[in-house]
């Protein structure tokens, strides 16, 4: 894991432990993630992060709205994967970013308790995941 990723992880842990974010934490995340973090904060401010919980397992995935006029929604796991084009292009292919804005928005909303939660059956969740 890179030094940047380790620093980011420590900041996320701090935010999650207090369910609040300080100016210093915001500055560090902005330094690490730049425009992606700015965009992520806008998504969170607009309540654009849904956490979809499977019942009875408690497994979850996030659905994050994009910023385009079409308001597409992307399924993501904040620490590992996003279905958006930027994830594959900037992170997987080019290795230029640590996370896309959707992953950052999901992580921030989850840490702050700012997600809109939806519960569905485990069967519905499995179907949703099979379409990734």
Automatic annotation (TrEMBL):
GO BP field: defense response to bacterium; double-strand break repair via homologous recombination
GO MF terms held by the record: transcription cis-regulatory region binding; zinc ion binding
Key word Transport present: no
SWIM-type domain segment(s): 62-111
Residues in the signal sequence: none
Keyword tags: Metal-binding, Zinc, Zinc-finger
Name of the protein described by the UniProt record: SWIM-type domain-containing protein
Species in which this protein is naturally found: Nicotiana attenuata (Coyote tobacco)
């Amino acid at each position: 894991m890179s030094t940047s990723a380790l620093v980011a992880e420590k900041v996320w842990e701090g935010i999650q432990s207090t369910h609040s974010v300080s100016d210093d934490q915001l500055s560090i995340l902005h330094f690490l993630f730049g425009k992606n973090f700015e965009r992520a904060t806008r998504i969170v401010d607009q309540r654009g992060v849904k956490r979809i919980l499977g019942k009875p397992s408690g497994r979850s995935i996030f659905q994050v709205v994009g910023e385009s006029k079409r308001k597409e929604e992307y399924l993501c796991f904040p620490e590992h994967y996003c279905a958006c084009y930027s994830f594959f292009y900037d992170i997987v292919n080019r290795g230029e970013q640590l996370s896309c804005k959707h992953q950052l928005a999901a992580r921030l909303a989850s840490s702050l308790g700012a997600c809109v939660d939806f519960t569905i059956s485990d069967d519905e969740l499995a179907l949703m995941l099979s379409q990734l």
